[in-house]
């Protein structure tokens, strides 16, 4: 958005001569593609000339997903070759003599290439091949052959560093970490596309931040509840221990015999149950009934298989 928009006309050289270092760090220039010397010919389309040519072979196959138990599409580039030849941007209107040499076009973040040829070659499979593919978990579908070109005469919008090198005006990747564009879209459309992309990333960042905060909130809330429950349990244990100590002091004052036969849980009733198989005599019948399932001996924590009731004479 902060790029300086310049016209590709006779005044461009004068603008660069007045600029510091004969350089505009981030500029926008629009023109038509024209080769410097020879052009690249399409391998598949007659009378198709360009300055950038990309040949690509892409494998298409189905891969068995062991988790979802479904066949998923899988694509892999198995061969790619890109050829380039030096080219200039010339004015859209005929008659102007000024040109801009485009440097390092393959370094552009967006390089608009037109697909001039595309053909899919399906795989020929025998019955034994099909069985083998099902066993291996991979089913080849075929090979897609594609040729893309930046054709001569294409209207191109270049965004990058514009510099005057002796008598040659060059458009090259900017040195300040900004993006380098060679797009077939006009500048306004390219700017709108980039703004939409920035808005999308901002929205995704906000949503991700909100999801992170919400997750952190629920985790902290869960930890706080666990902390409150532990505090409440500790408080109940302290109160129970204090009540036990108080009852033991009271029973000590009443007599040692009563304390000796008192239930270890309530400390008020007399022991009346023998827990098997451990053999401990430590509880009254009321406290035994109140024990949670599965019932365990309060002394050794062994499971209680059966109970024998004691009758005091």
Can you walk me through this structure?
Its EC number is 2.3.2.27. Keywords: Coiled coil, Ligase, Membrane, Metal-binding, Mitochondrion, Mitochondrion outer membrane, Transferase, Transmembrane, Transmembrane helix, Ubl conjugation pathway, Zinc, Zinc-finger. By secondary structure, the protein is α+β, with helices and mostly antiparallel strands. A 5-stranded mixed beta barrel has the order 2-6-7-12-11. The longest helix is centred in the C-terminal third of the chain and has 68 residues.
Topology, element by element:
Blueprint: E1 4-5, H1 12-18, E2 23-35, E3 40-41, E4 49-65, E5 70-84, E6 87-90, E7 100-102, E8 110-111, E9 114-122, H2 127-136, E10 138-151, E11 155-165, E12 168-172, E13 181-183, H3 187-254, H4 256-260, E14 273-276, E15 281-283, H5 285-290, E16 306-309
Parallel strand pairs: 1-2, 7-12, 8-13
Antiparallel strand pairs: 2-6, 2-11, 3-4, 4-5, 4-10, 6-7, 9-10, 11-12, 11-13, 14-15, 14-16
GO cellular component, one term: mitochondrial outer membrane
Pfam family, one: zf-C3HC4_3
Pathway: Protein modification; protein ubiquitination
Summarize the structure in short.
The chain is an alpha+beta fold.
């Amino acid at each position: 958005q902060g790029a300086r928009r310049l016209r590709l006309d006779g005044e461009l050289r004068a603008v660069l001569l007045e600029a510091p270092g004969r350089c505009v760090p981030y500029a926008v220039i629009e023109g038509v593609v024209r080769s410097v010397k020879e052009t690249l010919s399409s391998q598949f389309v007659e009378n198709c000339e360009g300055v950038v040519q990309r040949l690509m072979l892409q494998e298409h196959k189905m891969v068995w997903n062991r988790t979802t138990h479904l066949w998923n599409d899988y694509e892999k580039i198995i061969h790619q070759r890109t050829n380039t030849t030096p080219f200039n941007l010339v004015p859209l209107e005929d008659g102007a003599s000024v040109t801009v040499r485009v440097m390092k076009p393959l370094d552009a973040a967006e390089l608009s290439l037109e697909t001039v040829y595309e053909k899919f070659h399906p795989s020929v499979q025998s019955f034994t091949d099909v069985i083998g593919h099902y066993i291996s978990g991979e089913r080849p579908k075929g090979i897609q052959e594609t040729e893309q070109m930046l054709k001569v005469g294409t209207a191109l919008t270049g965004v990058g560093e514009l510099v005057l090198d002796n008598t040659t005006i060059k458009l090259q990747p900017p040195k300040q970490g900004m993006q380098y564009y060679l797009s077939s879209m006009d500048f306004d459309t390219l700017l709108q596309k980039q703004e939409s992309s920035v808005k999308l990333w901002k929205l995704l960042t906000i949503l991700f931040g909100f999801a992170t905060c919400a997750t952190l909130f629920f985790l902290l809330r869960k930890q706080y509840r666990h902390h409150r429950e532990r505090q409440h349990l500790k408080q109940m244990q302290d109160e129970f221990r204090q009540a036990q100590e108080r009852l033991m002091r009271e029973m000590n004052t009443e007599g040692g015999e009563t304390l000796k036969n008192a239930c270890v849980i309530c400390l008020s009733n007399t022991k009346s149950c023998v827990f098997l198989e451990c053999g401990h005599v430590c509880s009254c019948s009321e406290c035994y009934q109140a024990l949670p399932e599965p019932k365990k001996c309060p002394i050794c924590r062994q499971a209680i298989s059966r109970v024998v009731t004691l009758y005091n004479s």
